[in-house]
Each structure stands twice: as structure tokens, then as C-alpha cells.
Amino acid sequence: MIAMCVTTLALVAAEASVIPIAVAVVAPRDVTDSLVNRICAEAAAIWAPAGIVYVWNRDASKDEAHRLAIEVTIDDRQVPAGRDSALGWLTFASNHPDRFIHLSRASAERLARGTPGLSDSTVTSHEALIGRALGRALAHELGHYIFRSKVHAPRGLMRAAWS
Fold first, then answer.
1. Is the residue at 72 inside a domain?
2. How far is Cα 115 from Cα 102, in angstroms, rounded to an integer?
3. DSSP bridge pairs for 17
4. What is the per-residue pLDDT for 123?
5. How far is 51 from 56, CA to CA, in rounded Å?
6. Residue 162, domain member (yes or no)
7. What pLDDT is stored for residue 13 in this prediction?
8. Is 57 helix (H, G, I), strand (E, B) or coil?
9. In a domain? residue 54
10. What is the pLDDT of residue 1?
11. Using one digit for the tens of pLDDT, what is the confidence trace for 57-108?
12. For the chain, what is the domain count?
């Protein structure tokens, strides 16, 4: 079902002019620009074949952020109850997704620390792994937003659990 939706999006995007989706990225100063860039690049690369283009704006003012389509917050906040070890989440109200996506750097760090063989990685390779993990989580949450659905698929980008 999800694959069919992505294919349909790709066909529609090929025939229509691409309208980029504006995204405000909010992160504390200790989240480096390079990590934010890796996260955004990973999510953009996943959605690019479907013809979906994002315009990322980390430096959006609070007023600008509220006007943009989506706001992504990257921080170390606690994962909501019932979403143990989630890397990202977005909430739904009345079966409609809100425009706020949260990514947990702390959850990604715990995942990396708990993975055998990653403890001796360089700073750069560690950041690349965290960026990839959070970028894929962001792509997944963007899928919920784009499809306006809480549904998870048995496999692929929209599956509920990742190994």
C-alpha cells in the first residue's frame, strides 16, 4: 500500500512542477551543523525518488518556523510514554498529524552505544551513523505526515520497528 502511494507520488511529481516543502529545523547549539546537514540529507535522499523536495531552514525565526509547513526539533528530550527507544515521533490529533516532528539524539546515542563494534568508531563515523539513523527516522515521520496516516507497513520505510 505504501509502495503504491510512493509510486503514485512519483508519477504525479513527474508530471507537475515540484513544490518544495518548507521545513524549520530547531536544535540546540550543541547539535552541530554537520549533524543537522547529515540528518536532512538522509531524509531528502530517501524522498527524492518520489519527487518530494524539502527546503531545510535551521535558522528560521520563531515567527518563520510557525509559518513553515513542518517543524523538526532535534534534541535530547525524553521519548513519550509507550514509545520506548523511539528515534522520532509526531503526534496526531483527530487522526491528523500535527506539523511538529521530534527526533531524539539521546535515543540514537543509546542505540549506537548498544551496538557491538561501534564503541571504537571515530568521531566522524559516529556522527555519520547518528545522522543516518536520525535521518531515516525523520524520513519515516515525514511519511506519516505526507500520507496523513498512523499506519505502519510490514517492511520498508514505514515499518514500525527497525533492527
1. yes
2. 23
3. none
4. 83
5. 16
6. no
7. 47
8. strand
9. yes
10. 46
11. 987 666 766 677 899 999 988 777 777 779 999 989 888 999 999 999 999 9
12. 1
106 CB-near residues (< 8 Å, 6+ apart): 76, 77
Is the CB of residue 68 less than 8 Å from the CB of residue 23?
yes
Residue 94 identity: S
Reported as a single tens digit per residue, the pLDDT across 40-53 is 999 999 999 999 99
Structural Rg of the chain based on CA atoms:
16
CA distance 123 to 110: 16
Give the range of the structural domain holding residue 90, as residue numbers without chain letter. Answer: 18-147
Q: SS3 string of the chain?
A: CHHHHHHHHHHHHHHCCCCCEEEEEECCCCCCHHHHHHHHHHHHHHHHHHCCCEEEECCCCHHHHHHCCEEEEEECCCCCCCCCCCCEEEEEECCEEEEEEEEEHHHHHHHHHCCCCCCCCCHHHHHHHHHHHHHHHHHHHHHHHHHCCCCCECCCCCECCCC
41 vs 160, higher pLDDT: 41
Percent share of the chain, pLDDT over 70? 83
Can you give the pLDDT at residue 39? 98
> 53: domain CATH number?
3.40.390.10
The C-alpha cell that represents 30 in the structure block? 550543541
Report pTM. 0.84
- d(Cα 39, Cα 51) in Å, to the nearest integer? 19
Q: Does the residue 153 lie in any domain?
A: no
